[in-house]
Amino acid sequence: MKCIFAFSFWISMLNLSSSFQSAEGRSRLIGSDDPIIVAPGTDVILPCRLEFEMDLVNKTIEWSRVGGKTESAKRQSWNTYVFLYRRGVKLTAMMTPSYLQRTSLIDDGLSRGDMSLKITNVTFEDNGTYECSIPRRQQRAKVQLVVSPNVPTTSTRKPLQSTSLPDIYRRKENLQKVGQSFVPVITFLGFFLALFLLLIINR
Known about the structure:
Layout: H1 2-21, E1 29-30, E2 36-38, E3 44-46, E4 49-50, E5 60-65, H2 71-76, E6 83-86, E7 89-90, E8 103-105, E9 117-119, E10 128-134, E11 139-147, H3 167-201
Parallel strand pairs: 2-11
Antiparallel strand pairs: 1-4, 3-9, 5-6, 5-10, 6-7, 8-9, 10-11
Helix pairs in contact: 1-3
């Protein structure tokens, strides 16, 4: 009975530490609720990132236009993606020709869970809704791009507010980082507390 109590305590500590680690698995993909409005001929960044930081360097990242070909059609044809990245390689053969030389991801962004897309020299043809996705995680997010001649050219050179997370998500991200840093400490202390309880109980 005494051993069962100590063992149950150890299991509880392990469950506590795993709860911190599982936060990464629940991290959702965030795009932008507001449309991104830019002037033609300028550069734009379409925001898309995970709620919590996660290394996406070895993942598959897809950007496509909403209203284009269906998923099954994409797999059976070429030139369907705005941007396609797989395990460190940009797959240009499956990208729409007009985006080949104009799209890229943010430098070092994937290592932080940021898969925002940069489009240079935007035109009126770029108007529409874009979708970023991580196929393996079955997660998607949408961003609407509006190209308007009424927007001052200089405004698109400034950092877009929509690329940053709302304060509530930033606080959750910081809490998750703190929680992960305590995982090995909780596991270590849990083991010795269980051992200490066994010694006390067996006296």
